[in-house]
Structures are given as structure tokens and as C-alpha cells.
């Protein structure tokens, strides 16, 4: 159970909701301390909070969705592995340089079926974020991903990936060790895989660092996740020389699940609990599990040749309408 983690962080646009929830908490403490019967007042405030939450999340802007996708209490890749995968056996290293903890993965069972799982892990607190390099992988991380995808192909078991990264690590050492080549090879491994590949964007899907694990037969995306070629801040810095224009860039990038589904760049939008995945982690993970199972079932009926052909056509078809 993940919901034992107390939710303490409110986003800027959630301030009215935070104030209401603060008042509810104060009333509850007063009731416990003084034995006052103020259940009616609490019920009224709770109803008002629910209405405010629904109204707020019904009209989120792309920039606000970006903030929700980055929420520090949102479930991370490791949470999905713990919630959905049994008999998990982690596998480490790229067999060439090192083990990159920004990419986690291994063998396990998803609802009784053997799978290879991979994820970009951001971490849940300061210590784990530093340990996992904030989910920004280096070349050895993508080479590990490629190794595990190819391992899945040899054993004939599906691949499940969970993507949550602002992008690949941009450091000089990563570039010196072949960052672009490693990402390209990981994408190639996904596209050439003889087994089903199901990718789920659970938070941020940033640039090539995300695509390296997301070139799947089915791409699922949580309702308030984002998926883009560049971050809004990076786009704003390039186009307007001003990162403060990030909200405008977020609008232009078409990075929301609704935009990407309309453009046919993803296959399925997975609904989140009211107020975002961070408000009910267990329900979110369960919903993702159901969506993965639904996407995986028809793919299991295809042989390797049919899978590759359908996958090739899927990606070649992207953008065709824009060219005609």
C-alpha cells in the first residue's frame, strides 16, 4: 500500500484546495481534542473541497498538467513494479561499463505471466532521487534497457516499460560514452523485438530519453502525464530566450495525453483519480495494470513476424495525414 505516504505538497494552482483541506484538518483536530460535534461543518467543507477539486482538474492547462506530471508524490516506476510485478528479480549492468540506477528492470510475473520490466526511476525523496540521478539515464542505462529487451526476445516473454524522465542525462561524460547511439540502439531494440512491448508514460515523457523505452506496440499514457520532444522550459529558452515563457511553450508543444491521443501518437489514456495520481497511488497503479492487461491480450495472439509488421506500420503511419 502506497497511500501511507502523507500528501504534503500542493501545487500553485491548488492553493484554494489546500486552504479548504487545512480547515477540515483543523476542525477534525478540534473535534478530537474538545469532543465537539462538528460533523456537519466538516461534511459541508468536504463537499465544497470535492467540488473545487473537480472544477480545477476539469480545466487544467497544459502547463498545469506538466506540474501534475512532475508532482513529487506521484507514484514512480519502482512503485509500479512493486504493485504490479510478483517474483521480481532485478537485473543490473550493461555488460560494458556500469549499472545505471536511473533505469531499473528485471524479470518477474505480471498477473501470472512472465515478463521483462523496465522503468526510468526518479526516486521518492532526496536520497533516492540523487541515487537514481533524478531519472536521467546515461548511455549505460539505455544499453541495459537494450540488453533486457533482447533478453525478453530470446525467451519469448513480453516487455513492460514505465517511462518517467525529464530526458537523458546531458552531461559531457554521457556524450563522450555515446549517449545518442545508446538511445538509438534502445529504440531499435524496441522496434525489432519479436515479443510484445507495452510502454506506459506514468509522469514525464521527455525527449529521446523517453522514446528509448516507449517505442512499443501499445503506448499507454496516464491522464495527467506529459510526453514531448523537449521540456516546456527548454523550448521557451530556445524560442523566446526566456524560460518564463514555459506555459506558452507547453500549450504549443501539444504534450498532453488528450493532444497525443488525437494525433494518434499514443494508443490509450489511463484515467487518474480525481486530483491526480498522487492522491490515490494504489488506485492509479491498479488502473494501469488493467490497461496493460487489456493492451497485452490481443498482442499475445500475434507471432513475431506479425508483431514486427504491425509495429512498423504503426510508426510509419505517424504523421502521414499531415503530409497529404
Characterization of this structure:
The chain has 324 residues and is of the alpha/beta class. The protein is 50% helix and 15% strand. Strands 1, 2, 3, 4, 5, 6, 7 and 8 form an eight-stranded mixed sheet that branches. The longest helix has 20 residues, at 15-34. The termini are far apart. The model is unreliable at 1-6 (pLDDT under 50).
Task: Explain the layout of strands and helices.
Elements lengths: L14 H20 L4 H19 L4 H8 L7 H8 E6 L12 E8 L2 E8 L5 H6 L7 H17 L3 E7 L6 H5 L2 H14 L4 E10 H5 L6 E5 L3 E3 L3 H8 L6 H8 L3 H6 L5 E3 L10 H19 L4 H14 L2 H4 L1
Parallel strand pairs: 3-4, 4-5, 5-6, 5-7, 6-8
Antiparallel strand pairs: 1-2, 2-3
Helix pairs in contact: 1-2, 3-11, 4-13, 6-8, 10-11
Proportion of helical residues:
40-55%
**CATH H level of the largest domain: which superfamily?**
2-enoyl-CoA Hydratase, Chain A, domain 1
Total discrete domains = 2
* Tally of strands: 8
**CATH topology value of the largest domain:** 2-enoyl-CoA Hydratase, Chain A, domain 1
**Architecture of the largest domain, CATH level 2?**
Alpha-Beta Complex
Structural class: alpha/beta
**CATH class of the largest domain, please?**
Alpha Beta
Strand content: 15-25%
State the order of secondary-structure elements, H for helix, E for strand: HHHHEEEHHEHHEHEEHHHEHHH
Shape: globular
Mean pLDDT: 90
The total of helices stands at: 15
Describe the sheet with the most strands: 8 strands, mixed
Cα Rg: 21 Å
Measure the end-to-end span: 50 Å
Low-confidence parts: 1-6
Amino acid at each position: 500500500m502506497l497511500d501511507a505516504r502523507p500528501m504534503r505538497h500542493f501545487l500553485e494552482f491548488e492553493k484554494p484546495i489546500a486552504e479548504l483541506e487545512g480547515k477540515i484538518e483543523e476542525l477534525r483536530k478540534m473535534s478530537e481534542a474538545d469532543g465537539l460535534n462538528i460533523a456537519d461543518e466538516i461534511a459541508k467543507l468536504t463537499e465544497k473541497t470535492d467540488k473545487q477539486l473537480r472544477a480545477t482538474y476539469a480545466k487544467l492547462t497544459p502547463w498545469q498538467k506538466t506540474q501534475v506530471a512532475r508532482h513529487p508524490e506521484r507514484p514512480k516506476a519502482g512503485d509500479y513494479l512493486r504493485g504490479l510485478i510478483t517474483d521480481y528479480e532485478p537485473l543490473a549492468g550493461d555488460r560494458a561499463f556500469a549499472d545505471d540506477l536511473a533505469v531499473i528492470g528485471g524479470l518477474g510475473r505480471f498477473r501470472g505471466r512472465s515478463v521483462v520490466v523496465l522503468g526510468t526511476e526518479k526516486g521518492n525523496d532526496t536520497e533516492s532521487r540523487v541515487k537514481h540521478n533524478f531519472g536521467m539515464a546515461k548511455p549505460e542505462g539505455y544499453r541495459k534497457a537494450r540488453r533486457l529487451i533482447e533478453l525478453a526476445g530470446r525467451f519469448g516473454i513480453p516487455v513492460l516499460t514505465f517511462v518517467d524522465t525529464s530526458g537523458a542525462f546531458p552531461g559531457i561524460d554521457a556524450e563522450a560514452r555515446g549517449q545518442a547511439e545508446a538511445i538509438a540502439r534502445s529504440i531499435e531494440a524496441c522496434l525489432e523485438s519479436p515479443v510484445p512491448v507495452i510502454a506506459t508514460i506514468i509522469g514525464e515523457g521527455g525527449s529521446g530519453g523517453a522514446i528509448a523505452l516507449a517505442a512499443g506496440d501499445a503506448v499507454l499514457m496516464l491522464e495527467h502525464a506529459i510526453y514531448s520532444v523537449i521540456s516546456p522550459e527548454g523550448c521557451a529558452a530556445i524560442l523566446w530566450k526566456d524560460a518564463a515563457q514555459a506555459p506558452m511553450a507547453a500549450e504549443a508543444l501539444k504534450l498532453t495525453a488528450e493532444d497525443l491521443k488525437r494525433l494518434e501518437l499514443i494508443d490509450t489514456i489511463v484515467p487518474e483519480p480525481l486530483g491526480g495520481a498522487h492522491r490515490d497511488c494504489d488506485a492509479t497503479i491498479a488502473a494501469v495494470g488493467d490497461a496493460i492487461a487489456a493492451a497485452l491480450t490481443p498482442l499475445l495472439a500475434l507471432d513475431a513476424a506479425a508483431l514486427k509488421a504491425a509495429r512498423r506500420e504503426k510508426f510509419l503511419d505517424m504523421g502521414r495525414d499531415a503530409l497529404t
